[in-house]
Amino acid sequence: MKIFPENNQSFLDIALIYTGDADMAYEIAVENNMDIGDPLGAGAELAWSGEVADRKIVDNYRAYNRKPATYRRTS
Fold first, then answer.
1. 6 confidence band (pLDDT: 50, 70, 90)
2. Distance between CA 52 and CA 19 in Å, rounded?
């Protein structure tokens, strides 16, 4: 599956939206040769070959068009 993050989305956001499980954030980052804390640029392309962990959560995000964006830079 190809995933295109939006502004200020983190791997945690992506994991919840596409797998329904926050624990999958690490696996998605690793599959894309990135660190879980790396910023994701809007429009960047990520790959995910894993499965949906919780279909109810994924369906809820889609049904209500929820797109969390929780990444905040700290400096």
1. very high
2. 4
pLDDT score recorded for residue 73: 74
CA 22 from centre of chain:
9
> Pseudo-torsion of CA 56, 61, 39, 34, nearest 10°?
30
Radius of gyration of the chain (CA): 11
Q: Is 51 helix (H, G, I), strand (E, B) or coil?
A: coil
Distance CA 22, CA 18 (A): 10
pTM (predicted TM-score)? 0.90
Exposure string (b/e) for 32-67, b if CB count within 10 Å is 16 or more?
A: beeeeeeebeeeeebebeeebbeeebbeebeeeeee
Place of tokens 């049904």: 63
